[in-house]
Amino acid sequence: MSRFDSTIDMAGVKILEFPTFSGSVVNGVAHVFIGSLASADIGTHVAFASKSGAGRLVLYMPPALNSETQSYPAAEVSSVLSLQGQGFNIEIEVLSVEANALRPVAASSNLEVLIQDESAMAEFLELEGASEIVELALGCGCEVLFLRNRMIVTHLGLEVARSKDVGGRLELEVGVGWNDRMAKALLSESPEPEEKLAETLDVVNRYRLGFSRFHPLARLSLSRWMRLVIQDDPAIIGMDKLTPVELVREGGWPTGGLWSLKRLSGPEDGEAPMYRGYDSSFEEDGFSFALASDGAGIEYVVGISSAVDLGAAAKLYEVIRAAESSGRKIGGSILVLEERNKIPSIDRMTSLASFRIRSVSLLPAWKTIVHG
User: Fold this and answer.
1) Distance of CA 52 to the CA centre of its chain
2) What is the pTM assigned to this prediction?
3) By the 8 A CB rule, do 358 and 319 touch?
4) 200-205: long-range contacts at Cβ-Cβ below 8 A with a sequence spacing of 24 or more?
5) What distance in Å separates the CA atoms of residue 168 and residue 206, rounded to the nearest whole number?
6) What whole-number distance in Å separates Cα of residue 132 and Cα of residue 136?
7) Cα diameter, the chain
């Protein structure tokens, strides 16, 4: 710091080291030096500044993060952090550390909001073979989500199938995650997608609605299950209507992740797809989103988290900005948490928010509410 600002006296300054960053507070300003990034959210660093009683946060992005060996585009990540920083009532500056100077990072985001309304389905139905697989999924009582030319089929929030282009025509590929879809394609005795889907739904029900709460099928994608419950009864969060949204990022984000910056596991060659598990943008983040409206027609962005996430408010703000960029008029936001995850640290972060936000807690009994 003193190298770039001679007015800063480092004598006696205590430097705290954490797994991914180091920080210090000088004259009421929190200085955070990024060591590595596993997630593109500024929440942890804002929490450090708040806990330290700082009124300003300066985030330093070192040259190492711009290395070509990184699994993500550092310039885009820095811009996202700068944008998220605008969502808090604390002065935040993101700086890129260069050879002999510090360069302020401009705020921007490549996040896009895909609203799961009738127009999303209509666009998908224009594709060859789309109507057949949509009818099949809905006929089995599943939910369908559309990511442009791709359809994700879910049951109780969990992905159970997705569309696949086979020779220019869409077909339904059944399974929970890549490995399960591949296994069913190679080993299943039934060649019919209807039978494969029915078998998969039976297995999901057994673990999702049973007592195997530690089984992966019972724990994955809980936030979308929570969203289904709220969609059936928006009054739970004081709203009249709830419409799911899905998110995509353009650019060089790894594996299509939304905030995750982790590399794909497994060998990076022609056989790599065999080792894929879940689509990180759909499963890993533990966060689902929706647009809600109240009796007055005011629209809100709803963020539904199934985990303890210090970056929840930062991510919610980025989604709000993305929705506004697409032409939506957003009047506020709602953060929905499981009661057990509503901890003081999360409350502190939401209290620092510069945008309209209120928190709602779901009691553990939400799982017993039957969807549909």
Assistant:
1) 28
2) 0.89
3) no
4) 200/155, 200/160, 200/161, 200/174, 200/175, 200/176, 201/140, 201/141, 201/142, 201/155, 201/160, 204/155, 204/156, 204/158, 204/160, 204/176, 205/155, 205/156
5) 36
6) 6
7) 73
Please give the Cα distance from 63 to 351 (Å, whole number). 33
CA distance 356 to 20: 30
Contacts of 314 (CB under 8 A, 6+ apart): 41, 42, 43, 46, 84, 87, 88, 349
Nearest to 115 by CA among 312, 301, 313: 301
Contact (Cβ atoms closer than 8 angstroms) between residue 363 and residue 342: no
8 Å CB contact between 354 and 87? yes
- Cβ(306)–Cβ(274) below 8 Å: no
Query: Helix/strand/coil (H, E, C) string of 126-152?
Result: CCCCHHHHHHHHHHCCCEEEEECCEEE
CA separation for the pair 90, 46 (Å, rounded) = 9
Confidence grade of residue 260 (pLDDT, cut at 50, 70, 90): confident
237: nearest Cα among 132, 148, 357, 67: 357
Provide the CB-side half-sphere exposure for 268 (13 A, CA): 6
Whole-angstrom distance, CA of residue 222 vs CA of residue 305: 8
Query: Strand order in 330-338's β-sheet?
Result: 111-115, 241-249, 287-293, 299-305, 330-338, 357-362
pLDDT in tens, 4-20: 565 666 666 788 888 88
Angle (CA) 370-366-210 rounded to 5° is 65
Q: Which two tokens stand for residue 176?
A: 């929970």
Contact 33, 22 (CB under 8 A): yes
- Backbone angles phi and psi of 257, in degrees to 5: -65, 155
311-368, pLDDT tens digit by residue? 999 999 999 999 999 999 999 999 999 999 988 999 999 999 999 999 999 988 888 7
- Could you give the CA distance from residue 50 to residue 91 in angstroms, rounded to a whole number? 11
- Which residue reads 């928006």 in tokens? 234
Q: How would DSSP label each residue in 162-215?
A: EEEEETTEEEEEESSHHHHHHHHHHH-S---HHHHHHHHHHHHHHHHSSS-TTS
Of 339, 341, 224, nearest in space to 290 by CA: 224
| CA distances from residue 213 to 200, 206, 243, 279, 287 in whole angstroms, order as listed | 18, 11, 28, 22, 19
CA distance 366 to 353: 27
